[in-house]
Amino acid sequence: MNRKVDLQDLGLKDYKVTWDYQETLFKSIVDTKVNNRREATNLETQNHFLFVQHPHVYTLGKSGDLSNLLLNEGQLEEKGAKFYRINRGGDITYHGPGQIVGYPILDLENFFTDIHKYLRLLEEMIILTLAEYGLKGERSAGETGVWLGVGTPFARKICAMGVRASRWVTMHGFALNVNADLGYFDNIIPCGIRDKAVTSLNVELGVEKVNEVEVKQKLLKHFASLFEAEFER
After folding, report:
1. 191 given a catalytic annotation
2. Catalytic residue among 100, 191, 201, 220
3. Which letter does DSSP use for residue 172 in this model?
4. Predicted local distance difference test score (pLDDT) of residue 188
């Protein structure tokens, strides 16, 4: 089992360009697995972890409801935002500057074959990172992602998640609001959930800007521990 993970920070990159890149990495892993079975070989499969920020974009998962996007095409253009229907689970979400997006593209057969466990460990990575800032991140029953104030009238989501998996290979991932412009969430019903708000780490800490490099370092530390993985740059 190869638990080494190739780490790349793509900086600010167009959503569709990044999606295509994910698909290329995803296909390479799947092709290796298919060939291993067909040829009775045992070639090592690769794992990847992409950090990225996107220009303003809304994405709708394959089971999502288009009515949760509250803008028409002209309004999207006015706000400088794009929209894509994509092949992950979940409903609609927003990506933009000030948000740390992570795309683990893993062969789970290098780690464990359990999608439920995979999602729970991604949530735990976020929860442990938030705890380092004195915040209590929580799960909300039946709603993938990480929240603050669950069970109170002030429940608010700080991290959205949506993944795709095939042949135990994953893509897409998580979006943690760190210094996000929360006004863009007003243009959607985030994740199709009407009765909970959205927040960002800087808002919760009452500061203008959180050090995003530091947040990434904490995320990677907890990911490596939870998945017993080793990062390669």
Report:
1. yes
2. 191
3. E
4. 82
